[in-house]
Amino acid sequence: MTVARSGSVADRPLVFITGASSGIGQALALRYAQAGYRLALVARRSEVLQAWVNAQGWDDQRCRVYLADVAETDSIVAAGQRCLAEQGVPDVVIASAGLSIGMDTAEREDLDVMARTFALNNTGLAATFHPFVKAMVARGTGRLVGIASVAAIRGLPGHGAYCASKAAVVAYCESLRGELRRSGVDVVTLLPGYVDTPLTQQNRYAMPFLLSPAAFADRAFATIRAGTSYRVIPWQMGVVAKLLRLMPNPLYDRLLTGRARKHREGEGRSTG
Fold first, then answer.
1. Is 267 part of a structural domain of the chain?
2. Is the dihedral of CA 46, 47, 48, 50 positive or negative?
3. DSSP 8-state symbol, 16
4. Which residues are designated catalytic?
5. Of 4, 25, 53, 259, which has the highest C-beta tally within 10 A?
6. How far apart are CA 25 and CA 213, in angstroms?
7. CATH number of the domain where residue 160 is located
């Protein structure tokens, strides 16, 4: 993956990022802009995103904003198709939009929360990639980046929907990587630990190795540029998660007894 820093703006590589109105998605947008990329940015709150883009001083040649609800398949597919028509085939596609809400299986309304979480975090991720796969394969180059979470590695009480959806992101990206092997299109799976974003700011428990969005974006950019297939950021959280994965179930269950749970819907802000 090369970065063009000279010539016309139209000759620069292009990155397509969902969830760009805040948090990790916005930090990645800024990092790619600093590296000289053209930007295709997607958000449900497109007016908020457009105001931020305007504040950066980016014109339409440098950055375009697309309105889409990633949880609605036709909506995000249409945004991808518009990007192809207006800006061309991206060099990098980052499925960053995500939903994190606590759930209690005993509560009927939380089953609907789980369905919405899967619609955004899983089907929405695949639908984000869908418009670009054939075009990237035909060109013989491209990077598809799925944002999972360290929470994918082991389930946490009260986080059933989120942990399950992020574990599914890891498995899906691994499957897609196998399908695209030798096509020239790389699949990168990133597992953030704790990042200081609207998704985490109201958490009621300790968040070790907390990163700023900019620090995460720097490390993610380097990982994507290298084409690394799977990485936990920061690496320290990867060590912690692997140790927890190896822990016998009775000990793990005892360790988490009494741990504060994620806010359920209506208890805190949880969309990004």
1. no
2. positive
3. E
4. 162
5. 25
6. 9
7. 3.40.50.720
- The answer to whether 78 touches 42, Cβ cutoff 8 Å, is no
Binning pLDDT at 50, 70 and 90, where does residue 271 land?
A: very low
Through-space distance between the first and last CA atoms of the chain, rounded to whole angstroms: 28
| pLDDT tens digits along 153-194 | 988 888 999 999 999 999 999 999 999 999 999 999 999 998
Position 4 in a domain: no
Rounded-to-integer distance, Cα 220 and Cα 37, Å: 15
Identify whether 270 is part of a domain.
Answer: no
> For the CA atoms of the chain, what is the radius of gyration?
18
> Can you give the residue range of the structural domain that contains 175?
9-256
All residues at 6 or more sequence positions from 110 whose CB lies less than 8 Å from its CB, including other chains = 103, 104, 161, 264, 265
Query: What's the order of all strands across the beta sheet hosting 38-43?
Result: 63-67, 38-43, 14-17, 92-95, 142-147, 185-192, 230-233
In the three-class reduction of DSSP (H, G, I as helix; E, B as strand; rest coil), residue 224 is classed as helix
- Whether the pLDDT of residue 211 is over 80: the answer is yes
Give percent helix, percent strand, percent coil of the chain, each to the nearest 5.
50, 15, 35
- Domain annotation covers residue 269: no
pTM (predicted TM-score): 0.90
Number of domains in the chain: 1
Q: Which residue has the tokens 């749970």?
A: 261
| Encoded tokens for 105 | 């299986």
